[in-house]
Specification:
Helix content: 40-55%
CATH architecture of the largest domain: Alpha-Beta Barrel
Largest sheet: 8 strands, parallel, barrel
Order of helices and strands: EHEHEHEHEHEHHEHEHHEEH
CATH topology of the largest domain: TIM Barrel
Strand order of the largest sheet: 1-2-3-4-5-6-7-8
Number of strands: 10
Mean pLDDT: 94
Structural class: alpha/beta
Low-confidence stretches: 291-297
Radius of gyration: 20 Å
Distance between the termini: 27 Å
Number of domains: 2
Number of helices: 11
């Protein structure tokens, strides 16, 4: 998933339009964008949307309310029968949170004759101070876990901070730490790392810079708050033909010299860790129908 668009669950018109915006995933939001008095209305709307949406295009995720709110069970009761591709779990605090959510999903899948494990989990891994210390504990928690992402807004409130970005629009140190822990935690758990939202949604140049920095550092997708952000996110996180050709050349060179620890291509030396990097890039490219499956060296 390169692009994941948040849409309030209690805005059916926006949900229907979102399906045509080109996002890889739509996040039907039951949490922050829904007022407390509209939670039940939002659950019904989310269930209706899941039941009516045509599958085969964007993945459908539901951001439920956090485990400590007392609202998660009602959220899952409403949406699991509609078979979302995954839930997004806010304010996750390490692997134990995923185990807890997994158990709730397993019970509801059984109740509705849905194959166990059908509903995945994307965890927001940095929204509380405690979560930062648990970012390395997601590995092995559940086969449902497909991605980690991070957030700065809730964390800044928890820390009592006045701001999370400086006057240039760049994240301040506590949030750069959270971002780094998300990348490392995702890599340790062998799941996708997704960058957080860019809230200045009319600033395409700023969005592009942040996407390019995220891709450089190891993120493979980004959350969005406006359909106008999707095209830029998809472009930046889609491997270019040049990157694909380079990855293919690296794999071909090592395949031709399987005993080599280092190979040279066009005057540049590559060692065996570059094999994994090339394979990951080609896997992302195949996900958007760019290249066939290559033979491994």
């Amino acid at each position: 998933m390169r692009s994941l668009l948040f849409v309030p669950a209690d805005a059916p018109g926006k949900l229907d339009k979102a399906l045509g915006c080109g996002a890889d995933a739509i996040i039907v939001d039951l949490e922050d964008s829904v007022a407390p008095q509209r939670k039940e209305t939002a659950r019904r709307a989310a269930a209706d949307f899941l039941g009516a949406a045509k599958r085969g295009g964007a993945r459908l995720l539901v951001r439920v309310n956090g485990l400590d709110t007392g609202l998660t069970d009602a959220d899952l009761d409403a949406v699991v029968p509609g078979r979302p591709d995954a839930i997004m779990l806010p304010k996750a605090e390490g692997g134990a949170s995923i185990v807890h959510a997994d158990a709730k999903l397993t019970a509801r899948e059984a109740l509705h004759d849905i194959p166990e494990g059908s509903v995945g989990i994307v965890a927001i891994a940095t929204e509380t101070p405690k979560a930062l210390f648990l970012a390395g504990t997601y590995g092995g928690a559940s086969a449902r876990l497909i991605a980690l992402t991070w957030g700065a807004e809730d964390l800044s409130a928890e820390l009592g901070a006045e701001a999370n970005r400086n006057t240039d629009g760049n994240f301040l140190d506590p949030y750069r730490l959270a971002r780094t822990l998300c990348i490392a935690g995702a890599a340790a758990a062998d799941v996708q790392a997704l960058d957080t939202v860019y809230v200045d949604f009319r600033n395409d140049a700023g969005l592009r810079r942040e996407c390019e920095a995220a891709r450089r550092d190891g993120f493979t997708g980004k959350l969005a708050i406006h359909p106008g952000q999707i095209a830029t996110i998809n472009e930046v996180f889609t491997p270019t033909p040049e990157a694909i050709a380079k990855a293919e050349a690296i794999l071909a060179a090592f395949a031709a010299a399987p005993a080599a620890g280092v190979i040279g291509i066009d005057g540049v030396m590559y060692d065996r860790p570059h094999i994994s990097r090339a394979e990951r890039l080609l896997a992302r490219a195949r996900a958007v129908d760019f290249v066939p499956t290559p033979s491994k060296p």
